Amino acid sequence: MKRKRSMRNGGSFYRKGDNNIVSDRNGFKIKASDSRKEWNGLVVGKDEWEERHPQDYVRGVKEKIAADVVRSEPATDYFIQTDTEVKAGDLT
Q1: 92 vs 71 pLDDT, higher one
Q2: pLDDT attached to residue 4
Q3: 30: exposed, middle or buried (C-beta count within 10 Å: 0-12, 13-18, 19+)?
Q4: What is the helix (H) or strand (E) element at residue 35, kind and residue range?
Q5: What domain range is 30 assigned to?
Q6: What is the pTM of this model?
Q7: Cβ distance 11 to 35 under 8 Å?
């Protein structure tokens, strides 16, 4: 049975074909095979890795902004036809 190496002294032990890196989250030295890259580009240890929050993938629903009932504005110019003649003195 293979015994797992303790990380008590960081990544300061020999593992054939593996190199040391520094964790972007806590600054500890770890082995590259014990690291993972997060969604934001940070390289961290497997025990520190966090997946992206599901709320980051939610998209908003497009709203229907137009009104249901649309009417044109009523005409504001009303003309009343009369048979009488209007004089300047009648308007004051």
Answers
A1: 71
A2: 52
A3: buried
A4: strand 35-37
A5: 20-48
A6: 0.52
A7: no
